[in-house]
Request: fold
Amino acid sequence: MNEEFAVETMGLCKTYGNTEAVSQLNMQVKTGAIYGLIGPNGSGKSTTLKMLCGLVHPTNGEAKLFGRSVNDPMVRRRTGVLIEEAGLHHDLTARDNVRMKAECMGLADKRTIDSVLEITGLTNTGNKKVKHFSMGMKQRLGVALALLGNPDLLILDEPINGLDPEGIRELRELMNTLNEEGKTILLSSHILGELSKIASHYGIIRGGRMTEQISKEKLEEKCRDYFQLEVDNVDRALPVISENLKDAGLEVYDNQTLRIYGFTDSAWLIQLLVTNQVQVYSSGFHHMNLEEYFLDKMEGGARNA
Amino acid sequence: MLSLMRMDLYRMRKGKAAYICLGIILATIALVYFLLFLMLTPGGQVIAGKLGMMDIAEVEEAKALFQEINLLLVFRQSCTDGGFFSLVISVYFTIFVCADFKNGFIKNIMSIHVNRWKYVGSKMLSFAILDIIYLAAAYLFTFLVNLIIGGSVPFTKLSSVLFYMAQAWVLTMAILALTMVVCMLTRSIAAGILTAVLVASGVIVTILNALLGFFHANGWLKYTLYFSLTGAPEVYHGPADLAGFAVGIVFLIVYTVFAGVVLNKKDI
Reply:
């Protein structure tokens, strides 16, 4: 059995009526990776994750977990899921909800219930009903349910939704710990800055299609330092810079913003622009972060000069 | 499937709804018995007379009624024959099943269990157990209340009670299976409860019976769930008395299979 990939999809499609939610999606998540699935709302992230969990039937294509079909009961037991909001019975306690999932999985050792409640910091909720929980507590309980049975793969859809900064930090540490223990984590999130702190691989999905899969190292290579200028008129500034900086990479970000790559002499350039009657509102050196890279990818990127 | 059934039974035990439904059934039996007490016992008739609820003529009618009544009949009239019992358990069943979809717990279940038939099977098995408990508790309660008021209603033979209860159990399970179909199709508590009201209380078949009666084409309606339940025999005389079982089992299988097919076809 090939376990190089914890998750692998081949030409995965899902159509609702005439709408293609997911189209020819090819995705590979290496075993042991933390894979961040990124995409705008309606890009097909949740549908993809639901297909991987066996909740949604693909219209076409194939999805495999640990080299086996997602319809193999054995691989299902190796997978913990949290899709969209945590599915919880609100008139029961946290412990009752976990106990129910444990019964559902046929887990004989009830100590695992205490274990996941402890990991997610819900041990002391006592008889408090889930309906009285905060959003963050519900989300943590959802993670606790996903962790039951010590799964090898965690599929988490927007797991940090509703968590406060402290909760986000705790969940990040938990995911890192679980990953160090050898678990593969596939997660989606809108909070890209947070995702960039933990993910080792990324998949960018747009319009139901995978536009790019990239490792953290490769991504960092692509993120270059640049000098950003905000000017009154880009059309006037462009020829001035192009004529004097022939080797530097130039990018028009918007109507007033320019980015220059491979360039360091900022004082000279600003002097040059002012001399040519281009007003400079602001300037500075930047390092393109992961969030900007993803946004560029999702929005189609800036206009290259 | 057994693990899912254990999960369902745990949820029933931990939730309040199962106890509330049983309480409603027992309270209704108690109310009916209170009215019977007023009608059938000398002490009760005195109270009813003082309250202006009965006159001498009505007391005589009640005495005549007293000659024909037995404990199982009281149980049927107060609990099962009008569809009250089926209605209560169907409403609870609807809320129990649809809650999984409404709160999203179904995702936790279906991400583990590839075979969705297990879900349908576990729900039916769990409610089969609850159905037996409710029927037994309701009859036992009727029995105890009758003892408390002096055993004024004659007791029924155990064989008759068991024969009827088995039919009631199968037929109410078939009604639950039909409710399951609607729950799987719509995933809506409102639709499930509407189905429970229409089917369990016999609204649809009663209207049909009236309409088809004009054309003398209503004979087949005795094979519907509602009329099978209301007309269920208490004593076995021959194979014809097993019709209630046959109707219940056929509908139970058909509706359960249909519910399973729908669940398998639809996305979660």
Observations:
- Chain B has one domain: 2-265.
- Residues 2-265 of chain B form one domain.
